[in-house]
Design brief:
By secondary structure, this protein is α+β, with helices and mostly antiparallel strands. The protein has two domains: about 1-105, Orthogonal Bundle (Arc Repressor Mutant, subunit A), CATH 1.10.10.60; about 130-285, Multidrug-efflux Transporter 1 Regulator Bmrr, Chain A. Helix content is about 40%, strand content about 20%. It is built from ten helices and eight strands. The chain has helices spanning about 1-15, 25-30, 35-45, 50-70, 75-80, 85-95, 100-105, 160-170, 170-180, 235-250; strands at about 130-135, 140-150, 185-195, 200-205, 215-220, 225-230, 265, 280-285. The chain has an eight-stranded antiparallel β-sheet with strand order 1-6-8-7-3-4-2-5. The protein is elongated and about 70 Å long. It starts with a helix and ends with a strand. This is AraC family transcriptional regulator. Keywords: DNA-binding, Transcription, Transcription regulation. InterPro entries: AraC_E-bd, GyrI-like, Homeodomain-like_sf, HTH_AraC, HTH_AraC-typ_CS, MarA-like, Reg_factor_effector_dom_sf, Tscrpt_reg_AraC-type_HTH.
């Protein structure tokens, strides 16, 4: 339950400071996790980014004021964090489908996004297969590329094309040949998230204790305890579904919390698209 309580504390902080210029670092500090981990967990559980949640909530409150007060639209724009009435009107129309002036006249419908409350749903009809693994430090080698994290998307835009490129040019086959570690298959690793420009490094890699070459770089993982979850089924859907269950069902039901180490997906099955494809999600825990 610790994760649920930490997330709710962060959400309460966002609501208390909804009209203040808060940063993702300020918010994540309330949950006692890194900005990268907080954004990732928040997006998995809510299907939207932190920035999107703040925007939706501010525009919901703005619509309520438009409907119930005579406050000038220009004053509302500045009050809810917009530099100009024009930028406020564009954002308002995008969310509500009508302009602030139309909302004031009672024309059209408004969309309300209510305050989030994190709750634990009693499920468990489908068991989650996992194991706890203690590992000493290990290294992976692979290809690293920086990507924007996207807005309101669980996945990282551009990563599927990256995989297609690496599979097509022979790099994936070469990495599999160099794999001499405990974790089989290719790894998809997110690391070194940059909060300021909302970018992250994504690695396609394999565990290997060998020397690197000009083609591949090396990434170090410290000694840690890992929760390793099975993801059975076509990988694109199974990885997403299992990840959501991990954060919405498994963590709230356990005393573990995510550790501040990069998570990764292990694509073990040679055919990741078949109906019973076996792959894994590795999450460091504390």
């Amino acid at each position: 339950m610790a994760l649920v309580e930490s997330l709710q504390k962060a959400i309460d902080y966002m609501e208390e400071h909804l009209l203040d210029p808060i940063t993702i670092s300020d918010i994540a500090e309330q949950a006692n996790v890194s900005p990268f981990h907080f954004q990732r967990i928040f997006m998995i559980l809510t299907d939207m980014s932190v920035g999107e949640y703040l925007r939706r909530r501010r525009l919901t409150l703005a619509a309520q004021e438009l409907s119930s007060t005579d406050r000038k639209i220009i004053d509302l724009a500045y009050h809810y964090g917009y530099d100009t009435p024009e930028s406020f009107s564009r954002a308002f129309r995008k969310q509500h489908g009508i302009t602030p002036s139309e909302a004031r006249k009672g024309q059209g419908r408004l969309q309300s996004y209510n305050r989030l409350m994190i709750q634990v749903n009693l499920r468990g009809a489908e068991p989650m297969n996992y194991r706890i693994v203690k590992r000493s430090a290990f290294e992976v080698i692979g290809i690293k590329r920086g990507f924007p994290c996207g807005n309101g998307e669980m996945g990282i835009p551009g990563v599927p094309d990256f995989w297609e490129e690496v599979n097509g040019n022979g790099s994936a086959a070469r990495l599999l040949e160099l794999n001499n570690g405990q974790i089989k298959g290719l790894l998809g690793v997110c690391a070194n998230h940059n909060v300021e420009n909302n970018r992250t490094d994504y690695w396609i890699a394999a565990e290997s204790s060998g020397e690197t070459s000009d083609q591949f770089s090396k990434l170090h993982f410290p000694a840690a305890k890992w929760a390793v979850f099975e993801a059975i089924g076509p990988a694109p859907e199974a990885i997403v579904d299992t990840t959501k269950k991990i954060y919405s069902e498994w963590f709230p039901s356990n005393s573990y919390e995510p550790a501040e180490i990069a998570t990764f997906e292990a694509y073990i099955d040679p055919d990741p698209y078949k109906k019973d494809s076996y792959n894994e999600i590795w999450i460091p825990i504390k």
